[in-house]
Automatic annotation (TrEMBL):
<dbReference type="InterPro" id="IPR013563">
    <property type="entry name" value="Oligopep_ABC_C"/>
</dbReference>
<dbReference type="GO" id="GO:0016887">
    <property type="term" value="F:ATP hydrolysis activity"/>
</dbReference>
<comment type="similarity">
    <text>Belongs to the ABC transporter superfamily.</text>
</comment>
<feature type="domain" description="ABC transporter">
    <location>
        <begin position="6"/>
        <end position="256"/>
    </location>
</feature>
<dbReference type="Pfam" id="PF08352">
    <property type="entry name" value="oligo_HPY"/>
</dbReference>
<protein>
    <submittedName>
        <fullName>Peptide ABC transporter substrate-binding protein</fullName>
    </submittedName>
</protein>
<dbReference type="GO" id="GO:0005524">
    <property type="term" value="F:ATP binding"/>
</dbReference>
<dbReference type="InterPro" id="IPR003439">
    <property type="entry name" value="ABC_transporter-like_ATP-bd"/>
</dbReference>
<dbReference type="InterPro" id="IPR017871">
    <property type="entry name" value="ABC_transporter-like_CS"/>
</dbReference>
<keyword id="KW-0547">Nucleotide-binding</keyword>
<dbReference type="InterPro" id="IPR027417">
    <property type="entry name" value="P-loop_NTPase"/>
</dbReference>
<dbReference type="GO" id="GO:0015833">
    <property type="term" value="P:peptide transport"/>
</dbReference>
<keyword id="KW-0067">ATP-binding</keyword>
<dbReference type="InterPro" id="IPR003593">
    <property type="entry name" value="AAA+_ATPase"/>
</dbReference>
<dbReference type="InterPro" id="IPR050319">
    <property type="entry name" value="ABC_transp_ATP-bind"/>
</dbReference>
<keyword id="KW-0813">Transport</keyword>
<dbReference type="Pfam" id="PF00005">
    <property type="entry name" value="ABC_tran"/>
</dbReference>
Amino acid sequence: MKEPLLQVDGLKKHFVSQKGFRKSSKQVVKAVDGVSFDINPGETFGLVGESGCGKSTTGRMIMQMLEATEGTITFDGERLDQLSGKALKKARKDFQMIFQDPYASLNPRMTVRDIIAEPLIVHEMETSNGIDRRVYELLDTVGLPRKVAERYPHEFSGGQRQRIGIARALAVKPKLIIADEPVSALDVSIQSQVLNLLKDLQDEFDLTYLFIAHDLSVVDFISDRIGVMYLGKLVEIGDRDSIIQNPQHPYTKALLSAVPVPDPRAKRERIVLEGDLPSPSNPPSGCPFHTRCPFAWDRCVNETPELQTAETTGHTAACHLLDEL
Ligand code: SF4
């Protein structure tokens, strides 16, 4: 059996801020609160949940853009959270990020050529003679004409900008790509083009993806396995088919009920969640979902459910009514 390419174990990010006017009074925001998952080589792991659930913070900790409060991140057998300086720079070549807003993540004063060439220069991967050839090769790969190399980001549509961002991420031949809401800013018709491009690139370059999104239909389309996050915790995790066809957690059921069904004759009962996502600075007692769960009962208020394997499906979920709903 292959070793996972990425192992995240007990990852936490707690932000401490001052509460009110008194310096001594602090509040702790548990943005990510004990998340564990593995991603195997060549796999796409989709991390899904509402905005503010901690999925992007998880991605940023893996990218080493944010320091974890607790937990370990092992990438290709190496503890990323223990690296710094040159060792971290060397490791960074193997994991790259694609951002939600391709415009904000591309320097408006740089040409497309310079944007794509930058990581090649930082990681000393090409001679100056080889850079143009590699930039053209990457433009071909993402389906953009070579003549765009001398143009600037503002001259492109959202979908084209995202292709430039993908070319930049691919430049250093990474093993893992963390895609943080890469299609949520795009029109639906363009979304499918970019998702299909990501799938084709995965086959061509043997890439592994951590795909972060709030839209379960997008995650369903691209993922091999799915993790559902709620209020900083993973509440369900398993194979894509198992999660989509047989969700165990009421939160996953609610997310799934909002996904349109292609066949209008096939009806899916819509579960409307009451209320907003509670604040991670003051999470509910017991099950974090109990304030919005239509099935909540006394035990849910007092006891936090652990992730357990459901007998009916073989995947894991954190709910006191596992296998019963
Ligand atoms: Fe709902 Fe209770 Fe299950 Fe939490 S543990 S998801 S509140 S039924």
